Amino acid sequence: MVKLIVSVNTVDEIEKAYALGADEVVVSIEGASFNALKKVKLEDIDPTIPISIFFNCFIFPDIKDHYEELFQEVLKKKIESIYFQDPIILTWAKKYHVVDKCIYRPETLLTNEYDAKWWINHHLKAISISPLLTIEETLHILEQVSNTECVIHGHLMMSCSKRYLLSAFQNTYGTEPLKENYDLTIQESQREGHMPIYEDSNGTVVYTDYLLQSIEEVPLMVEKGVSRLFINGEFLEEDCLFDTILLYRHLLNQKLMKNDCETYFEKYKNLSFTKGYYEEKTIK
To answer: Alpha helices, DSSP H only, in 208-282?
Structure first.
């Protein structure tokens, strides 16, 4: 069975996401998650409810002991999946016997079948394919590699940096504090779109100005053997996130009607939905 995964911003959204048809719900925890999801405190997570987490910060040698202790604390929860990108997580996962819960998600970097096979051969739960590929490239990897996940909806992370870029701008131009502000965007000189940008203690992340939608592509992914489909919750209002879960749940259950799509896209016509890079390579 193909699983529908969704990332949420608050602990209050977890049960509702499950009720609407999510098979797994993912949160970002304070101190260990590097993205623009709102961070939740580990102690606020109900230990009886299954939950998945992003443990995807960059871990340097001088702070690895702190993060290993935090990793052990995470394992006291009812963890379904652990999303990571730093290879040291695989070392700890082997040490604490949770490799089968780990999903390698380096955002934009996993772009070919060879990398995917190398990681999946370490007996991980899954690998997450870069969403910045054409649909043909994505389907090829799905045919070659088992236990795969595709991001199918939401703002896509375009870049991340350990540098505090917004703070540097603030210090240079004397602006108000820009750290942990969810209302900021940047614009490239030759593009009209405004890309969300966010900085916290882990660094700075930049997202696409558009929202990926994959209504037509999901059946193709399922046919080629995808295991998991992921909805990104960053910068999505709660109602939109919940409607999105329901839309894809109906699609996977083959209950999606044409008017369901029309109603959804009309309701959120102010958002910039596109096919992303499904039909156009990032590098020509």
So the answer is: 218-224, 238-252, 258-267
Contact 276, 131 (CB under 8 A): yes
Block means of pLDDT (10 residues each) for the chain, length 284 residues?
A: 96 96 97 95 93 95 94 96 97 97 95 96 97 96 97 95 94 93 91 92 94 97 98 97 98 93 96 92 63
Helix axes 64-74 and 88-95, enclosed angle (nearest 10): 50
For position 189, what pLDDT does the model report? Answer: 82
What is the C-alpha radius of gyration for the chain, rounded to an integer number of angstroms? Answer: 18
Q: Which of 58, 36, 54 is CA-nearest to residue 45?
A: 54
pLDDT at 188: 87
Is the Cα torsion angle 93, 97, 102, 104 positive or negative in sign?
A: positive
Name the token pair of 164. Answer: 């505090």
Single pTM value for the model:
0.95
Helix axes 113-120, 135-144, angle to 10 degrees: 40
With tokens 């502000």, the residue in question is: 181
Q: Which domains does the chain have, with CATH numbers?
A: 3-156+210-274 (3.20.20.70)
Kind and range of the H or E element at 24? strand 24-29
Selection from 123, 114, 132, 125 nearest residue 149 by Cα: 125
Distance of CA 153 to the CA centre of its chain: 9
Strand arrangement, sheet containing 203-207: 157-161, 203-207, 195-200, 185-186
Number of H helices, E strands in the chain: 9, 15
Nearest to 31 by CA among 77, 71, 87: 71
Instruction: Tell me what pLDDT residue 282 has.
Output: 65
Residue 284's pLDDT is what?
Answer: 52
